[in-house]
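ok, trying the design again with the full structure, not the truncated one.
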C-alpha cells in the first residue's frame, strides 16, 4: 500500500479519546526560554535588515512580537493545563488526531497516518482489539437499522393493501 493512499477511515465517524496534558519538564522550560530569546533577537535583526524607515520597522517588529507573544501564551496555557484530562477525536482507522470532522462528525478525506505516533503501531494486538470492538459496535448498529427499516417496510406494505 502506498504511503500516500487515502485512509479507509475517511468518511467514518471520528473516535473520541481522553488524554492527559503532559507535565512540563525543566528541559521544556529551558528550551522555551532559549527559543523565545532567539526569536526576539531574530525579530529585531529582521526588522532592522528589511526596513530603513523607522515606522515600517516598528510595524514589522510589532507583528513579529505578536507571534512571539502567542507562543508565550501557548506555553502559559500548557503550564496551567498540565496534568489535566482533555477530550479529543482521532481517525478510527489510522488514529491520526488532526483529521478534521465534517458537520456530522465523520473524518474528512485524508491520507493514512499509521506511523504518526508510537501508540498507532501497525500490527499490534491492541490495535486489532480496538478494531474488533469498533466492528462489533458498528455491526450492532447495522442490525438495529436493518430491523427498523424492515419494520417500516412491513408497515408500508400492510397499509398499501
Amino acid at each position: 500500500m502506498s504511503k500516500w493512499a487515502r485512509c479507509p477511515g475517511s468518511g467514518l465517524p471520528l473516535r473520541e479519546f481522553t488524554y492527559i496534558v503532559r507535565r512540563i519538564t525543566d528541559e521544556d522550560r529551558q528550551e522555551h526560554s532559549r527559543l523565545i530569546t532567539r526569536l526576539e533577537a531574530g525579530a529585531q535583526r529582521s526588522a532592522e535588515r528589511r526596513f530603513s524607515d523607522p515606522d515600517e520597522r516598528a510595524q514589522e517588529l510589532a507583528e513579529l512580537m505578536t507571534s512571539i507573544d502567542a507562543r508565550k501564551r501557548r506555553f502559559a496555557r500548557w503550564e496551567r493545563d498540565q496534568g489535566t484530562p482533555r477530550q479529543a477525536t482521532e481517525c478510527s482507522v489510522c488514529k491520526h488526531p488532526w483529521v478534521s470532522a465534517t458537520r456530522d462528525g465523520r473524518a474528512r478525506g485524508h491520507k493514512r497516518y499509521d506511523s504518526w505516533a508510537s501508540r498507532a503501531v501497525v500490527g499490534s494486538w491492541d490495535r486489532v482489539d480496538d478494531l474488533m470492538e469498533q466492528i462489533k459496535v458498528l455491526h450492532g448498529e447495522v442490525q438495529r437499522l436493518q430491523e427498523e427499516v424492515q419494520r417500516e417496510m412491513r408497515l408500508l406494505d400492510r397499509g398499501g393493501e
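Keeping the full-length input from now on. Helices lie at 26-50, 54-81, 125-159.
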